[in-house]
Description:
Number of helices: 16
Strand content: 5-15%
Bound molecules: D-xylose, calcium ion
Mean pLDDT: 98
Radius of gyration: 24 Å
Order of helices and strands: EEHEHHEHHEHEEHEEHEHHEHEHHHHH
Oligomer: single chain
Low-confidence stretches: none
Amino acid sequence: MSxxxxxxxxxxEGAESDNPLAFHYYNADAKIGGKTMREQLKFAMSxxxxxxxxxxxxxxxxxxxxxxxGKTPMEVAQRRVxxxxxxxxxxxxxxxxxxxxxxxxxxxxxxxxxxxxxIITEKIEEKMAQTGKKLLWGTANCFAHxxxxxxxxxxxxxxxxxxxxxxxxxxxxxxxxxxxxGYVFWGGREGYETLLNTDMKRELDNMARLLTLAADYADRIxxxxxxxxxxxxxxxxxxQYDFDASTVIGFLRGYGLDKRFKLNIEANHATLAGHxxxxxxxxxxxxxxxxxIDANQGDMLLGWDTDQFPTNVYDTALCMLEVLRAGGxxxxxxxxDAKVRRGSFTPEDWFAAYIAGMDxxxxxxxxxxxxxxxxxxxxFIAERYSSWNSGIGKQIEEGKVTLEDISAYALEMGEVKxxxxxxxxxxxxxxxxxxxxAQ
Length: 439
Ligand code: XLS
Ligand code: CA
Ligand code: CA
């Protein structure tokens, strides 16, 4: 029985088509950069926004019915599995991601929650076997319940830490059972509001303890996927410990965890941190910690996490340039951590939103591949740093000179006479030309 019976299977019809329920740029089997678009982009459905979120905000109730005909919480959970697999199938999405709480209701006790999870996991497992859909990553929601009001791994209450540890253990078991290729840690409540009540050192040490315990457990059960930290600077707490990619990398290095974790970079979180999406991806890449992406976009006029579907082609082009420079996705992919606006309440809107996001990333991939093949931007960068390829530059990079040697060189030189233009406007024009070509 179909849940989205009025929605057709979404096909590629090309840029000339005016059918809103068709792809205009995403042609799954077309090859770009040596792989098909489907392999390069590895799109995933976010279970929470797609199957659970109903448009509720702090000013009003939901606008979207996500019960899919279910009546009791467990019936709704069962119907969501049906809805999710039909949704992925009709859009040609190969992957999905979930929080433990998205797939099953909590129940009265932790044991009850785990029982609910087992029932739904079995159903998901069956559906995966039937359809070939894959789990990109799982994660435990250790932020929504009041028991986490002061944090989970960073809570002053050791019992909250213990509850979170149990939730993470179970969610790792499920992720492993479903063949997931990743496991995400987003520190929802891992931060603080005021230092008047906070022992920062203890909180950071405990957060590292929880991550270490989890990574050790992943090794013990033979989980081969990647473990990711997802940086975010604020919201819900004022000071989130995982502020941005650099902060997370510093934290992981400080606790000797940098070889065990990678990063899941979200576009909207980059914006909130005052960075571009490309900056965060580049920081992850140059530190060999690029893992996966939460694809969405924020609104530059709003200061919060709007999680909109990505439609800005400049951003997706520069994102995919970083992904290609990193050698493409291995275990990661592009998870649409994005939700429709509250007024977009029809199933057609939900499909159209994914189509818009997938087409925007397809364009991004096409343009990123063109930027690389065009070569002008890479050539400019190579030339810009060419003073390091010989002479004093080479000697410095090779560690062959002391500070005294360099000082003697500079005294002899007298003044820097070899400055070159940064060429920013020319390069921005090159980017436009690569993007829009001849009209
Ligand atoms: C919230 C985060 C969250 C993580 C997974 O802002 O983006 O959805 O991706 O817990
Ligand atoms: Ca996210
Ligand atoms: Ca977000």
